[in-house]
Specification:
With 448 residues, the protein is an all-alpha fold. It has one domain: Up-down Bundle (Growth Hormone, Chain: A). The protein is built from 20 helices and no strands. It is globular. InterPro entries: MFS (IPR011701), MFS_dom (IPR020846), MFS_spinster-like (IPR044770), MFS_trans_sf (IPR036259). One of its GO terms (molecular function) is transmembrane transporter activity. This is MFS transporter. It is a multi-pass membrane protein.
């Protein structure tokens, strides 16, 4: 794919340092869309690894600190506590300053906090360290999609942001498989220490090699330097019918996915008595390969079909979620391990295709100086969803366990959770009804 030149060649002239997108002859930063996409996708992946690696460590942490399913699920809430509020504040700053600086700094912070998780001497210390991971991601992640949206035109953002959103499936594979193996061979604490290393390296790479793109280079409002107020962002996200349903549908799907992934290794260990490394391998493969393929395919379909019918950006995930929910319920109740894994793989392929295409659809509805803030507002919904999903499932499991036992209680809780994907699919159908009209209404509009 040949991309248009952006902002002139690197080193063409000596410019003063300090403004957005500005470099000097001595600057190593490259104004390359694909370099930026690769580096930022890697950072996003590392962030997801540091977020999700606790999932494979649920059983050893639960055992060491003597916790219930409900209590151990509070690690998800601890991550969210600072992530939500700080993310909104940082995002408003990101609309005005160099975004790559925030990305680099945030990556360093959450990597250091991940390392501290491995040094935690007690349950409260571990929760505080997880809060630090959430704070670092609040600093570093809101700007990612904004940067990519300024490197790629609207009709290529579906694929570009889908590549960026490969972070969850790839991060899940590395977190589950690598984390499970390290925890079994060494210790769960060592898993956190190893997970912290890549982020520090990528923070340096992003700082020295990736240039800040010009905001709105491919949008009608490119010359508008005014930062729209928060109310204008909320008006687009929650006032436009299509955006509102995309937000609610994706947040619900995220809640369900975080809950199911949080306890999937526990299900393998309890029901089929497999080892921690083996359970992590199953969970990692299922949460990565099918989801990664789905994210890319749905993004490509959105770009291809969306040229003639913009509603495709909502219809593609709608169909996937409406089919995926019932399949997950059927899968999770199977008594044969191979059958369960095969069917969950199919359900995962269907239920995670919403990731990239949803963000692309929402970014296309946003003013160029709304995008970091829009991402942060979305993270409020997703943060609450990621915290509430494991808690909801964990306490349902505890409740059902009283009468059905620990294994069947968890199976029933996961089946109910999987069935709710249909609800998310309905929101995408509603979004499809309004998306073309809403998109047309925002073309060339100001930040109001």
């Amino acid at each position: 794919m040949q991309m248009p030149a952006l902002g002139g060649s690197h080193g063409a002239s000596a410019r003063r340092r300090g403004g957005e997108g500005e470099t000097t002859d001595m600057d190593m930063r490259r104004n390359s869309p694909w370099l930026a996409l690769v580096v930022l996708a890697a950072i996003s992946t590392v962030g997801f690894i540091d977020r999700i690696v606790v999932n494979v460590l649920v059983e050893p942490i639960k055992g060491e600190f003597g916790l219930s399913d409900g209590q151990v699920s509070l690690m998800a809430l601890a991550f969210t506590v600072l992530n939500i509020g700080a993310g909104l504040v940082i995002a408003r700053l990101a609309e005005r300053v160099r975004r790559l600086s925030l990305i680099s700094a945030g990556t360093l912070v959450w990597s250091a906090a991940t390392a501290l998780c491995g040094w935690a001497g007690g349950w409260i210390q571990l929760l505080l360290a997880r809060m630090g991971v959430g704070l670092g991601e609040a600093i570093g992640l809101p700007s990612l999609q904004s940067v990519i949206a300024d490197y790629f035109p609207a009709n290529r953002r579906g694929l570009a942001i889908s590549i960026l959103m490969l972070a969850p499936p790839i991060g899940a594979f590395v977190g589950f498989v690598g984390g499970g193996w390290i925890a079994q061979e060494y210790d769960w604490r060592f898993t956190f220490l190893m997970a912290a290393i890549p982020g520090g390296l990528l923070a340096v790479i992003a700082w020295f090699l990736v240039a800040e793109p010009k905001r709105g280079a491919f949008d009608g409002a490119a010359a508008d330097e005014d930062v729209p107020p928060m109310g204008a962002v909320l008006k687009r996200l929650l006032g436009l019918p299509s955006a509102r349903n995309l937000v609610f549908g994706s947040a619900l799907a995220a809640m369900l996915g975080f809950g199911l992934n949080y306890f999937f290794t526990s299900l393998m260990i309890r029901k089929f008595e497999v080892g921690l490394a083996e359970a992590g391998f199953y969970a990692g493969v299922i949460a990565s390969a099918p989801a990664a393929i789905s994210v890319i395919v749905s993004g490509m379909l959105g770009d291809r079909l969306g040229e003639k019918n913009p509603a495709a950006y909502a219809l593609v995930p709608a169909v996937c979620l409406l089919l995926g929910g019932p399949i997950y319920v059927w899968a999770i109740t199977r008594e044969e391990l191979v059958t369960l894994l095969a069917l969950v793989s199919v359900a995962t392929f269907l239920c995670f295709g919403y990731l990239g295409i949803t963000f692309a659809a929402l970014q296309n509805l946003m003013h160029p100086r709304m995008r970091a803030t829009a991402y942060a507002v979305l993270q409020v919904f997703y943060g609450l969803a990621s915290a509430f999903g494991p808690i909801l499932l964990g306490y349902m499991s505890d409740g059902f366990a009283a009468s059905r036992g620990e294994v069947d209680g968890l199976v029933l809780a996961m089946a109910i959770t999987g069935a709710l994907y249909v609800w998310a699919g309905v929101h995408y159908l509603l979004a499809a009804r309004h998306y073309a009209r809403d998109l047309a209404s925002t073309k060339g509009a100001s930040g109001a």
